[in-house]
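Figure S7 source data.
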Amino acid sequence: MPQHDAVRAQLEEQLSRLLKRVGSIESDLKRAHDRDWNEQAIELENDEVLEGLDAMTEGEVRRIRAAISRIANGTYGVCSTCGHPISAERMAAIPSALTCVTCSTEQPRSA
Ligand SMILES: [Zn+2]
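Tokens for the predicted zinc ion complex:
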């Protein structure tokens, strides 16, 4: 599948951009603890936002890494839950998608 080369390049670019963002969030968190005592309340609120962002970004990083390794082992575009092929439309919209539309809407983790 030659088109996977383009997807892979796209995913790798997205990954390096995300990793840069994680780096700047982490330095923001470190800086936040260096402030005056009376700014603590505000800083704590900011920390929560930053930590939420951080977790989201890290989740995305994990997904993209998984997608890249799936291209390498030939399982890219196959649903990791049910094993059926993921639709081309979905893969085009979310290149790092690991599950088909059905499995992602069913969210088996909340069951
Ligand atoms: Zn599925």
